Amino acid sequence: MPQEPNDWEQRLAALWETLDARAPGDFRDRIDALADERSADDPVALFERGSAHDSTGQPEEAVRFYRRALDQGLTGLRRRRAVIQLASSLRNLGRPELSVELLTAERGLPADRLDAEETALAGAVDAFLALALADTGRDREAVSLALGALAPLLPRYHRSLAHYARALLTAPDGA
């Protein structure tokens, strides 16, 4: 008898809580068993398999699963997470230019296309984009982006820091 979707999500969340207590292969096997309860082309199952590979040190496999999940129409918060995680894995695999491309496109999505949970990951998009920019030699852009993301979180100096972050993009090096 098939499990209810909420039950599946609850079992998935419970399994993720055990990540650090399990051997990597065991964790991936358990995620695979849960994913096998869904169709082979289910984007959520593909994403979860990718995340399991990513979290256990197998970025090459993770990239394949993330791409398949996105190609199969992954939506919502998991779609945004898949883009971030795909870009991070690509960067770690020595392809930061692709990471910059993915995250720049993600950053450019209109706010009205994102729900509150997706919008809450805007800082994560910026943080991973800053890392990728730094890896491509675009250090000033990386610092500007990181400081811009940090500025609203500060109890004081947020206006000044945001201004300085923008100025990094227009001021010559060494200014």
In short:
This protein has helices at 5-16, 24-35, 43-55, 59-71, 76-92, 96-107, 116-119, 122-135, 139-150, 158-167. It is mainly alpha-helical and 175 residues long. The mean pLDDT is 93.
Chain-wise SSE layout:
Elements: H1 5-16, H2 24-35, H3 43-55, H4 59-71, H5 76-92, H6 96-107, H7 116-119, H8 122-135, H9 139-150, H10 158-167
Structural class label: mainly alpha
Q: Tell me the total number of β-strands.
A: 0
- What is the 3D form? elongated
Residue-averaged pLDDT: 93
- Return residue spans where pLDDT drops below 50 for at least 5 consecutive residues: none
Strand content: under 5%
Write up this protein:
By secondary structure, this protein is mostly helical. Helices cover 68% and strands 0% of the residues. It has 10 helices and no strands. It has helices at residues 5-16, 24-35, 43-55, 59-71, 76-92, 96-107, 116-119, 122-135, 139-150, 158-167. Helix 4 runs antiparallel to helix 5 (76-92) and helix 8 (122-135) packs antiparallel against helix 9. The mean pLDDT is 93.
Task: Considering the chains and any ligands shown, give keywords for the structure.
mainly alpha; 175 residues; elongated; 68% helix
